[in-house]
Amino acid sequence: MREPPDLRDRVTRPDDSVGHVWPLALTSGWQCVSTPPGACVTPADCPQAGWLAAGVPGTVASAWRAAGRLDIANPPHFAYDDHWYRLTLSGHGHRRLRLHGLASIAEVWLDAALILRSDSMFEAHDIDIELKGTTTLSLCFRSLTPALEARRPRARWRPRLVSPPTLRNVRTTLLGHMPGWCPPIQAAGPWRPVELLGGTPHAFDTVDLAGRLDTSDGIVSLTLTFIDEQLTALPAHMTCGGVDVPLSWLDKRTLTGSLRIPDVERWWPHTHGVASLYDVLLKLGDLPAPIELGRLGFRTIEVDHGVDGESFGLTVNGMPVFCRGACWTSADLVTLAGSPAQLEHAFELARDAGMNMLRVGGTMVYESDAFYALADRFGILVWQDFAFANFDYPADDSFIRQTSREASQFLARTRRFASLAVLCGGSEVDQQAAMFGLPPAMRVQPLFTEQLPALVAALRPDVPYVVNSPSGGTWPFSTRRGVTHYYGVGAYMRGLDDARRAQVRFAAECLAFANVPDDATLHEAPGTIHQHDPRWKTAVPRDPGAGWDFDDVRDHYLHTLYGVEPARLRYEDPQRYLDLSRAVLADVMTDVFSEWRRHGASCRGALVWQFQDLRAGAGWGLVDATGRPKSVWHALARTLQPVQLLITDEGLDGLDLHLINETGTAIAAQLDIVSLRDGVQKVASASTAVELSARSTQCLRASDCLGQFFDFTYAYRFGPRSHDVTIATLRRASDGCVLSEAFHLPDRGVQNRHDVPMEVTLEPVGQGWQLVVEAARFARAVHVVDPHFRAAHDVFHLAPNRPHTIPLIRLDANDKTSRPQGELRAINALGPVFYG
């Protein structure tokens, strides 16, 4: 059977008049039913009652959710029952049934005939069928139990992350099988599209579209196959970038050709330029309109290992890029895909936060082509692990053939996407073996060192390959070489200075915390507002076997940085506990990324664990389960922008001010520094003109700007501390517009609270609202709380006597009537300020 690339999101239908060239997506009319394992051998054995309406693509869990039967906190063990789907087909003649993904061990029946067995959720299948009127298509998803009990060579190690460890033998996602990491919602069902091809003239089978750079020109290559033989060789042309070329017929079913676009505009990550894309159109015979085949971007991506050969960084179009972002989980754990609106919203948040990379880890799934199309459009690089993690995988011939098909299909269907930046063998496989004490020679797996790199070289030679994340050396997780997973600040509760001491080169994972969502999200999940409610603790991530969870990690930094006793504060003032919890992790994110992005740093990239939560509560996500940003997202949005001012504390050397301009345009600016006592009285200040060259970083010492001694960091301690905050502001010289701002507090303690007068004005703007806020003294970690709106930027420091505008975004986009009414809370203020 054929192994097609996924066409569903790679091509679009511009007009119904040419819609007949595309596959028919079988999305509606499906029913599903769950049965005990082995209870039904054939479709005829299925029960008459109990069938639910089911959407496809979808899962059994999504059908249950639509029917109101799914308890997210206590779902059934879907992977260990059987599940049947059925759909009536009508028609006559030859068709091709295309199944893009069946989770996880599946059978396909046409009436009483078994026409396919599949044992991988990551493989697509083509089946040629003959329709003779009305027939029933049945899909059966079998229990994983027999496969998990099958005998295979003993593994050299057994990770605690996954339950059961024999899942190494089954090609399925680990989502739903990782206690402490995510809800136990297991994949079962037709999670990728089911399509019917043929039955009309010129019906497409496959579209293989790719672009590459040849010096300054863009080369577009196309091979297009039809379901049926074309009895006449229709004239066909491909158009892209203003260039039109005829296509050639290789045979009666295959068109091919290429074109060259002179001086093509290059695709850049959005932080460094424009994510330029070109539409590729097909003119076929006398069809009335051109057919859109997809969009292409042209770029080069290479790995820079540094002068010592032990670094890891990406250069895009020959330019070094600091890669920053987060590790992707899923837009929707239940469907494993999410809606187009959910995906678009996630990419908007990634872009707005200044992220330019997302990593799809080996514990997740291969994402849809819609995901990659959005990454192309938004200028977000994608680090893609193959779907392998932690295990000592089988090395028998059947496993090698199976995983080769899986990887080849993925590489073929994503060939056209410019955003695919790194291909990685998997996640923490080498690390697991090393932590169990195996030396390098005993933990090698040819899957990662031979099989996968060969496929990448053949099918995506434009994308760098990494053996594993992390990998390399006696300790593959060494922070000072190559790719690491850094949790020194985070799970290992080390001080913030460890971010410099570790000399991180590239952190493909880092900085995991139990990040507290907004009050609105906590109130939507009843009970989770109280930290010791069992529902709160259920949502807090933990590593299996550990005597602590990630609430404990956050509390550690509350104690060490803010000088509070978390347990006491939690029961004496739970609201302040939550406010400080949000603020302290925002501080941690700001400090660590300021260190890693500073001028002269060894770090070339860092991806936070994780982008989004999979359930309501204080999860790892920068974004909560409803899609709302948390305080840590807001902190990163102030720290990861292409034009950025950062502060690092250099102890006895005072403060360093780091100026970053990743854009291709030079910027003339003014740098202002002011230190304040009691948040309002100026005790030191300076201004200096600066030039930010294109694609540059530079470092200025605050002491040099001031021109005299001032103990910015309170390191010398000659008498009482003279100030409580230093504010550095970068303004565009031409109009005084604030480009970036950074704050330094010589003492982070939160015991002293003051009267912080704030004037808040609520203003209508078009169909929405904004707040204009001005404080009479420095306001620290200002948090906007509103039952119907969220702040576009939040948990921010506010310089005194300067108006600050905050756009408000509706929590419910369909609510057009609610008016903003809430409060602003600053952690150094005696009480909130109300508005509305």
UniProtKB/TrEMBL annotation:
InterPro entries on file: Beta-gal/glucu_dom_sf, Beta-mannosidase-like_N2, Beta-mannosidase_GH2, Galactose-bd-like_sf, GH
Span of the signal peptide: none
Entry keyword set: Glycosidase, Hydrolase
Biological process (GO), any one: glycoprotein catabolic process
Molecular function, one GO term: beta-mannosidase activity
Domain Beta-mannosidase-like galactose-binding positions: 51-192
Domain of life, source organism: Bacteria
PANTHER family: BETA-MANNOSIDASE
Protein name per Swiss-Prot or TrEMBL: Beta-mannosidase-like galactose-binding domain-containing protein
Native source organism of the sequence: Paraburkholderia saeva
Lineage of source species: Bacteria, Pseudomonadati, Pseudomonadota, Betaproteobacteria, Burkholderiales
